[in-house]
Known about the structure:
The protein folds into 6 domains: about 5-45 and about 60-280, tricorn interacting facor f3 domain (Immunoglobulin-like); about 385-540, Neutral Protease Domain 2 (Neutral Protease, domain 2, Orthogonal Bundle), CATH 1.10.390.10; about 540-640, Immunoglobulin-like, CATH 2.60.40; about 670-745, no CATH class; about 750-820, no CATH class; about 820-954, Zincin-like fold (Alpha Horseshoe), CATH 1.25.50.20. Helix content is about 40%, strand content about 20%. The chain has 30 helices and 29 strands. The relative contact order is 0.09. The chain is an alpha+beta fold.
Amino acid sequence: MAGSKVYISKTLAATTVLMTFSAIIGIITMIAVYQLEVMSLPPTKPPEPTTTETIPTGPPPSMRLPGNVIPESYKVFLQPYLYTEISNVTNQTFLFTGNSTVQLRCMEKSKNIFLHSKDLVLKAIRLTDLDENVNLEVTHHVNESDSDSNFLEIRVENEVLRENGSYSLFTAFEGILHDDLEGFYRSEYEDQASGEKRFLAASQMEPTDARKVFPCFDEPAMKAYFEITIIHREGTTALTNWPMTASGSNTIIIDGESWLVTPFATTSKMSTYILAITVSDFTSQPSPHREGIKVWARPDAVDAKHTDYAATITVPILEYYEEEFGIKYPLNKLDEIALPDLGPGAMENWGLITYRESALLFVEGVSSETNKEWIATIIAHELAHQWFGNLVTMNWWNEIWLNEGFATYMAYKGVDKVEPSWNVKDLIVINEVQEALEVDALTTSHPLCSAEEDIQTPSDIAGLFDVITYSKGAAVLRMLSYYIGENQFKMGIRSYLNEFKYSNVVQKDLWRHLQQAVDDAHRLENVEDVMKSWTQQVGYPVVTVNTNDGKVYQEHFLLNKTEHMSTLQWQVPIITVKDGSTDKPITFLLTDEVTKSEFKSDRWVLANVNRTGFYRVNYNKENWQRLIQQLETRPNEIFTINRGQLIDDAFNLARAKYVNVTLALDTTKYLKNDTEYIPWQSAVHNLDYFILMFDRSEVYGPMQAYLRKQVIPLYEYFENYTIHSEVPESHTAQFNQINAISVACANGFKNCTDMASSLFNRWRENDTYQPIHPNLKTTIYCNAIAAGGEDEWEFAWERFQNSTVATERDKLRYALSCTKQIWLLNRYLQYTLDPNKIRKMDAVSTIIYIARNVAGQALAWDFVRAQWNYFSQQYDGGIIALGELIDEVTLRFSTEYELQQLKQFQAEHGEDSLGSASRALEQAIERTEANIKWVKENKRTVLEWFRRESKTAY
Ligand SMILES: *[C@@H]1O[C@H](CO)[C@@H](O)[C@H](O)[C@H]1NC(C)=O
Ligand SMILES: *[C@@H]1O[C@H](CO)[C@@H](O)[C@H](O)[C@H]1NC(C)=O
Ligand SMILES: *[C@@H]1O[C@H](CO)[C@@H](O)[C@H](O)[C@H]1NC(C)=O
Ligand SMILES: *[C@@H]1O[C@H](CO)[C@@H](O)[C@H](O)[C@H]1NC(C)=O
Ligand SMILES: [Zn+2]
């Protein structure tokens, strides 16, 4: 799966609180995306069997399938009853019916079969002994109160299942296509020409919702062959993972209505979580490069060529992977479909990848460069999953990082292939490495790889789809690839994929193959020893380099250093450079403290070149001063990525009290002479915390004055483009132009706010002509609405309602949260309760946007508390992450009063009503306590620093 994190955060690339895209990541970890809101009840044991015979088939000791019976192949029929057109509303029904015949092998003498089934009404169950060709007498049992296991137990009454026996289990069932975005669900959109509502059926199985579509053995290692037949209304197209069989669809008449029966070819051996089905009236655009590759969307969107970009880049990325991984994509078809409603950003279902519209449809002249990067990244991510995940699958969810870490890491390589000028291989540092370092410094973080027994319930599983799994996973793979060499890395993963195709792995299998590649190249690195320290331990180290005595050592980096004296050690690949040195970088593997005579120097030393390592670096004071001096004199002598690193490390070291807060602030002084995106982005991201802490206090004035002073040169650097609503050529320059505008406008630089209002008003006066460049829309809409009143807001709201382009709607939806008018913000909050105004999948992020606005902070928090029951009911079991809501809405909390409110909220709602948000609430309390302390300790110093620095001339 792919989250919407980058997208959401990048959407925010402009705000009145100086928030740019990564400012939100790490905070919005995975909004409305990865996390399933599932009740976090303790695992309940499945029922005791009622048999008195002494057959060794007791119930499984945990939530896991016992493995006494395994599936070999399924034959599944599904018939969704919905009409796509609302004009049939009198008959409109969202029922689906189906049946499944699964061939089983019995592994040991057994009396019962456990499989998964959830929210299905079972109509018939039949167990057949295939060897004897007789039906067996069975009873079945679904323990409704046991909401976590979702077990359907089939008990054999008068017989015993034989070891090695072949059986087939037939189930007939029916279910409802809810609009809950999980399992088999319905989605809807408006047909542009007629203005009519249209329905479609779609699916989202990962991680544990295939069981809502048909009874099945819903675990990733229970791979089987699937032969699916869809019975659907005439005039619709059904898609599933594999292509239609050669014979094609048949028309049949059922109860006087005609239906299409579409049979699909039997799949390869695959896991249930990557199954997919869609039934819609969508049309498709074929790839110009390869037969069988199609991009599907609403007919309006295909006609308007919104599918062009995706259709153009898919095959080049796919073919790059085929080459890189040394294995052909095994299907002769690949469908990518843009769904109006989807929980995650996208889902990698084998052969039928589903996307949110904003993750697939690029609208020339409307979508921004950020949208384009997001689309390319998500496509590359999902395509990488066709190998990492679909072909080779983790044995159990505790190692889901083997899917997500690889897909995230490989996506940067894939995008680099199709958009080489973007330099995304550098951007991985901002988008993934920096984000993961931030989250992994918290005591609430978790190791990349959890113990299998700790991941049992659907909510345990859903909880793993987070920044650690995605971004830290990608970051440590990147580190490993540099450490053992890119070629060895490539050889290792090739043989790994090849050995385990169509089956399952644990991470040791990966280490073994990479080790083989290292050995074959006559190198000495020990892959497993090094990587174990990164995947099995929580957190990461700060490496201290002291140029006075040449000592280098590491310790566990935690924001709250006092928490506990951790003795964790990592095997840290270190790459360093030295001022003025023409020598090759000095590289070594740090475990225990060492003394490097080369580092004893009165010239600066810089460690973690290009930030390939997953750690922070601290130095003695003198070396810090020399580095800052270098930044102020000739910044370009330090690599761009490392300029960003110095800022990011300094700010985080200051928060953890390794260095003074003034040293961190000092790293931003040189920025008036830097126009590069990565350093600016690091600064903007880190200063965001200062803004959150101080935008309600007297620090804010001097801070704004300082930021204004620093950003004016950058604003002016891009001004010629900006005032004409144009953008520079380079990808990262385009991003930094957005930073320039956001920071300048947010800090009251009048040229900027006037520019924003005037462009917006030109559009308002003649809304048939859009004068604002797509890249600049988010920040300009936001700043114009912030500066304006009801008229500006209403205009944007109307545009929001009338736009059918998802990315445009997202920009407007965000910008609407920027107003300073309390009553408008309050009314906007109310709109999130009405799915006709704000789609369900967008409600939580809209509330979060409002909370991000200092004027909306208190309103949003009151609203969340007042509507808590609504949210927990509406989104119970849905994909909306209530934890994220709590997390985000309380981000600014830094007073005793707010702390009391949090504690009261916790006391009022027990664990049950908080569900998955209870951990988030605990974290919010911990964070608020830390904020209170931080503000107390730093406010004076920070105020003085900003006062002083905002005065000095440059
Ligand atoms: C409703 O659906 C039926 C069957 O698909 C179709 O024949 C009929 O024309 C539809 N009715 C309307 C009003 O569109
Ligand atoms: C659909 O509705 C029409 C008119 O209300 C009715 O005649 C027809 O029998 C219905 N079809 C089904 C399958 O219920
Ligand atoms: C399963 O459903 C399909 C479609 O309704 C039907 O044709 C088939 O006979 C059913 N299978 C069994 C074994 O009843
Ligand atoms: C740090 O951790 C300690 C021990 O758990 C805790 O008491 C303290 O409140 C924490 N400090 C901050 C600033 O979070
Ligand atoms: Zn993914």
